[in-house]
Amino acid sequence: MTVASETSVLFDWIVTGGLLVSAFVTLLSAYRVIRGPTVPDRVVALDVISTNVVAIAVLFAIQSDKGALVEVGLVLAIIGFISTVAVARYVIEGDIIE
């Protein structure tokens, strides 16, 4: 085995490990969304889920060599940010649009 192929195998293992860790953290966050004692706990858990979905999309794009999934990850990041701001504003002020 050459050094390049060993590096490629190691890189594949690291990306797969990242996918598994992100999926596991997403499941833990889903539990917090369901059982969270307060609304801010649930909002933070939803933000963690959206961040992990972006990470999963990008890691899968790296693993499968499909660049379009990176764009999907960017769109999901924007949607996650906007939804977090909207929910935070609703929790603080009770209204999203003035």
Quick description:
This protein is mostly helical and 98 residues long.
Topology:
Elements: H1 3-35, H2 39-64, H3 68-93
Helix pairs in contact: 1-2, 2-3
Number of strands: 0
Overall structural class, as computed from helix and strand content, comes to mainly alpha
Shape: elongated
Number of helices: 3
The major sheet is characterized as:
none
Give the % helix.
over 70%
Low-confidence residue ranges = none
**Head-to-tail CA distance between termini:** 64 Å
**What does the radius of gyration come to?**
17 Å
Number of domains: 1
Fraction in beta strands:
under 5%
Compressed to H and E, one letter per element, the order equals HHH
Q: Taking all residues together, what is the mean pLDDT?
A: 87
Question: What does this protein structure show overall?
Answer:
By secondary structure, the protein is mainly alpha-helical. It has one domain (3-93). The protein contains three helices and no strands. It has helices at residues 3-35, 39-64, 68-93. Helix 1 runs antiparallel to helix 2 and helix 2 (39-64) runs antiparallel to helix 3 (68-93). The longest helix is centred in the first third of the chain and has 33 residues, at 3-35. The chain is elongated. The model has no long low-confidence stretch (mean pLDDT 87).
